[in-house]
Design a protein that fits this description.
It is a single chain. The protein has a 5-stranded mixed beta sheet. It is built from 5 helices and 7 strands; from the N terminus they run E-E-E-E-E-H-E-H-H-E-H-H. With 150 residues, it is an alpha/beta fold. The longest helix is centred in the middle third of the chain and has 22 residues. The chain has one domain: Nucleotidyltransferase, domain 5. Strand 1 and strand 2 form a beta hairpin.
Length: 150
C-alpha cells in the first residue's frame, strides 16, 4: 500500500513515499514545499493589521478577529500543503497518509483537509522533525523494527 509521509512545520514541508509491503518499507524523498516567510518575525512581515472595518450592511461597523502576521503566514502555508496533498490524493498517488507536524501547526494543516483526505490519515505524530527528518529516521520512527518484520 503506497503511503505518503508528510513532515511539516510553518517553514517547510517534506513529502516522502513508502510502500510498506514492498522494498522492506524503505522511505524515499519526493518533494519539498518551502515557506521562507514562515521564518520571519511579526514585524518583518508586510501584512494588513486587523481592526475596525466599516460595513454598509451593519450599522457602525464591526471588529475583525485579531490575527498576528506570523499566524496569517502559517495559515496560508497550511492551506498550500493541504492543497498539494489533496492533489496527490485525487491522482491516487497514495492511499495512506502519515502526518508528522509541529504541535502548534498540526491543527492548522488538518483544518484545511477535505473529509476524504482526513480518512487517508493512518498516523499522526505531533513533533517538529522538518529540519532533521531523514529517510532512515522516518522509517524507524513510523514503523519500528518489530512492526517492519510483520
Amino acid at each position: 500500500m503506497k503511503t505518503w509521509i508528510v513532515v511539516v512545520n510553518r517553514c517547510e514541508a517534506k513529502i516522502f513515499a513508502s510502500d510498506r509491503r514492498g522494498n522492506n518499507g524503505e522511505v524515499h524523498f519526493i518533494e519539498k514545499l518551502e515557506n521562507p516567510r514562515g521564518r520571519l518575525k511579526s514585524g518583518e512581515i508586510d501584512a494588513d493589521r486587523p481592526g475596525f472595518v466599516a460595513s454598509s450592511s451593519i450599522h457602525g461597523g464591526r471588529l475583525v478577529k485579531k490575527q498576528s502576521p506570523t499566524d496569517r503566514v502559517s495559515e496560508m502555508f497550511a492551506k498550500k500543503v493541504a492543497e498539494r496533498l489533496e492533489e496527490g490524493r485525487q491522482q491516487n498517488v497514495f492511499e495512506e497518509l502519515v502526518l508528522i507536524a509541529a504541535p502548534q501547526f498540526l491543527g492548522k494543516v488538518r483544518r484545511n483537509f477535505s473529509r476524504e483526505l482526513r480518512e487517508c490519515i493512518v498516523k499522526e505524530i505531533p513533533k517538529d522533525l522538518a529540519q532533521t527528518a531523514t529517510d532512515f529516521e522516518l522509517k524507524e520512527r513510523i514503523w519500528p523494527e518489530e512492526e517492519a518484520r510483520i
